[in-house]
Design a protein that fits this description.
268 residues, alpha/beta, Rossmann fold, six-stranded mixed sheet, three-stranded antiparallel sheet, globular
């Protein structure tokens, strides 16, 4: 496409076989600067396997991964565990293995966790831990953020806040974002492009297009696809759960408004 920036990272024809099992088959994927790409799919679809290939942690059986020269990648893993007997403050966690000395305070402030610098890592809530791990990824000043299920173990309101934070970081820093998630209602309403994976690429494109694709509906069911219509409007309004038009505040997105409406209904 004319005027489209070159990809930060591009996977072509990625196939991964372990023994007689084929975990990925001829998968193509790319992410560009300033773009948010969501990778969705059921459990066992190969999402984390693909991330490991992109990070260079797993060699594919076939295909190749191209990166822009000197591309810095910030990674937030799906699971993060710290030895419970290890005394570790947030500040110390952020500086371990950081290479040259870096001040962690700006990164913590960027994720709204500046007050946690002296807190124990073992006393953080799920949402606080995810913010701290994201701050660690930002310390590297990445051109590409890869987040594998970043909202796992976080309550609904915390998930919404976390995805809003990721969107703000993308806007302010201009980095690319590759987001792996099962949180379809929130993620698909706030992403540029969706890649639906089930060991191969079932479908890809803009969120609303993917939500209507037969393979997507086959994987997640017609109810999930219909529900996503609430979140994919790109107008100056949203819809409540009864389908009525709801005006948006100037600083609120349709995805945010719809998600908050669902939260209010659940709370009631």
């Amino acid at each position: 496409m004319t005027g489209c920036p070159p990809p930060l990272i591009e996977a072509q024809g990625i196939t991964v076989r372990i023994g007689s099992s084929e975990l990925l088959s001829a998968v193509d994927l790319d992410v560009r600067a300033g773009e948010a790409v969501s990778l969705v799919g059921p459990n066992g679809a190969g999402k984390t396997t693909l991330i490991r290939v992109l990070l260079g942690l797993l060699k594919p059986s076939a295909g190749r991964v191209w990166r822009q020269p000197r591309l810095v990648v910030g990674y937030v893993p799906q699971r993060f565990r710290i030895d419970p007997i290890l005394p570790l403050t947030v500040r110390r966690f952020l500086t371990i293995g950081a290479g040259r000395r870096r001040d962690p305070v700006p990164a913590l402030a960027a994720v709204g966790a500046g007050h946690l610098a002296q807190a124990s890592m073992h006393e953080l809530s799920g949402g606080e831990l995810q913010r701290v791990v994201l701050a660690r990824a930002l310390l590297r000043e990445p051109g590409l953020l890869i987040l594998d299920e970043p909202a796992q173990g976080v309550d609904f309101n915390g998930q919404l806040e976390l995805y809003e934070l990721i969107e703000r970081i993308r806007r302010e820093r201009g980095c690319g974002v590759l987001l792996v998630s099962h949180d379809l209602h929130v993620v698909m309403g706030a992403t540029d492009r969706v890649v639906c994976l089930n060991r191969h690429v079932c479908c890809s494109g803009e969120p609303e297009t993917v939500s209507r694709h037969p393979e997507y509906i086959g994987l997640f069911g017609p109810r999930a696809a219909a529900a996503l219509a609430i979140y994919t409007h790109e107008h100056d309004h949203a819809h409540d759960l009864g389908g009525e038009v709801v005006a948006l505040p100037a600083d609120q997105s349709p995805a945010e408004s719809s998600a908050r409406a669902r939260a209010d209904l659940d709370a009631g």
